[in-house]
Amino acid sequence: MSSRLLAVGSGVFSLVASLVFMVAVTRRLPEGELAQLARFNAAFAIASAALGYITTWYPRILARDRGALPDLLGLGLLFSMAAASAAALYLALSGVWDPALYLFLFVLTTLAGLPTGAYLSVYRQTLLASLSYLSQAAKVVGAFVVRLFPTADTALAVNVFMSLPTAAASLRRPRLRRAAELLREAARGASYQTLALAAAYAGGLYVYVYGAVGGDKLLSYSYVLFQASKAVYPALAIVPLMYGSLLRAGDKTKRALLDGAAVLYFYLAVAAVMASAPDWLVAFLRPGELSGELVEAMRANAVALLLSGFYLHLSNFLLGVEEKAVFTARDKPGLALLGDLALTPAGLALAYYAASAFGAVGMVAASAVTTAAAVAVRALLLGSAARPLVARLYLPALGALALFYLLPMPRWYKFGDVVTTLLSFIPNGLLIAALALAVFAALSPAVREALVLLYRRLR
Q1: Is 177 helix (H, G, I), strand (E, B) or coil?
Q2: Residues with Cβ < 8 Å from 274, sequence gap 6 or more?
Q3: Where does the chain cross the membrane (predicted)?
Q4: Sequence ranges of the domains in the chain
Q5: 170: phi > 0 → left, psi -120 to 50 → alpha, else beta; which?
């Protein structure tokens, strides 16, 4: 529990740092630079999926063999070059020719290919949570740098510095002696990761669709919504700890319920802000769009965000309950990706027609529908194992969010400069956070159990 409390604390700090950085990026960067970042994010998602051929198995191999860390370091450094090359191809096909973006792509991919984070999530969870404070401090400093040099390159440089603390922790001298053996073991799961890579490429197609429908304007809206969604940082700090614990836990369902209560509360709190005060978020992130469609898109995005929290939680649970250290496309995690790919043509068609007909709101609605379909696929694969999560977490969270759509909330905030806009929302933010917790706890037995454990820990 101490590692979870530390993770939540670091997550709250991450939220503050994220807000500071989001404001610097979304307010200062021109529309074209935001579009470049949207394209870069799609490319990096492809690099991450390619890295997954080995990184997916890092925590599972390390949970079985702690001494494999140096060998995985050597393997990761070699494999990251191939992953970055695959993503660079996507950037080139997207029409991006800025050499700096390619450099950042290779550096960030190399850092993401190191196994130190996986090692910490299994064996040094308290240290992993502590290092988050250093990363987020770098983000706060980076926000001021972005204000001075408002370009996509500056924002990406900040991401490099943020990645360094975790990447450098528990580093060993890379060793290639067992690299071939570990690569052969990881290759047994190549069919699974090929599906993950295909799913990432398929996800990148949505950027093409939105660019074709609405150009840089719709892509910039997409990026602002993406930045607003990153306010769930406290939840993301818990996820690697949950996954690391699931690999070693006896009662996996109970572990997933307790960690899921914390994860989904933070998703619910951010979604509640989107549902009840979307104009404040737009005024805070992109004030020039207050009179445009971005406000309604932000309001609709509350549902899409909460569904993405279900997806994240259920996907990690599906991986955590899989007994094999390395699995294939025929196992349940692989079948889930097959389901995603099978639904992609319908998702792309829906995204095109929804964005064409309803603009940014249609884009968000299409995202919510495709995410809900992916959640349903995973729930069906898990069968009875998913029922406690759906009944005790997901349905209560949806019920709580519905309350924020239906009930009028007091409007104590006002718009002005960034400091005024932020500080004036504090009373509303506290009220929304408290109400979200109260309603979620009233509806969810898992949340009530987690609160009792937290009370006993703090008493």
Answers
A1: coil
A2: 228, 281, 298, 299, 301, 302, 305
A3: 38-60, 72-93, 99-120, 155-171, 192-211, 231-250, 262-282, 302-321, 333-354, 360-381, 393-413, 425-447
A4: 1-187, 189-459
A5: left
Q: How many CB atoms sit inside 10 A of residue 380's CB?
A: 12
Q: What is the pLDDT along the chain (459 residues), one digit of tens a residue?
A: 455 666 666 666 777 777 788 778 888 888 888 888 888 888 888 888 788 788 877 777 777 777 778 888 888 888 888 889 988 988 888 888 888 889 999 999 988 888 877 777 766 767 766 777 788 888 889 888 988 888 889 999 998 988 888 777 766 777 777 777 777 777 787 888 788 778 877 887 888 888 888 888 888 888 889 888 877 867 777 776 677 777 666 678 888 888 888 889 999 999 999 999 999 988 888 888 887 789 999 999 999 999 999 999 999 889 888 777 777 888 888 899 999 999 999 999 999 999 999 999 999 999 999 999 999 999 999 999 899 999 999 999 999 999 999 988 888 888 888 788 888 888 998 999 999 999 999 999 999 998 888 777 766
Residue type, 420: T
Could you give the CA distance from residue 426 to residue 407 in angstroms, rounded to a whole number?
19
Which residues make Cβ contacts (< 8 Å) with residue 383, sequence separation at least 6?
Answer: none
Q: In the block, which residue shows the tokens 């250290």?
A: 325
At a CB cut-off of 8 Å and minimum separation 6, what does 456 contact? Answer: none
Residues 6+ apart with CB under 8 A from 20: 139, 140, 143
Q: What is the reported pTM?
A: 0.77
Instruction: Report the alpha-carbon distance of residue 208 to residue 43 in Å, rounded.
Output: 12
What are the φ/ψ torsions at residue 237 (nearest 5 degrees)? -70, -25
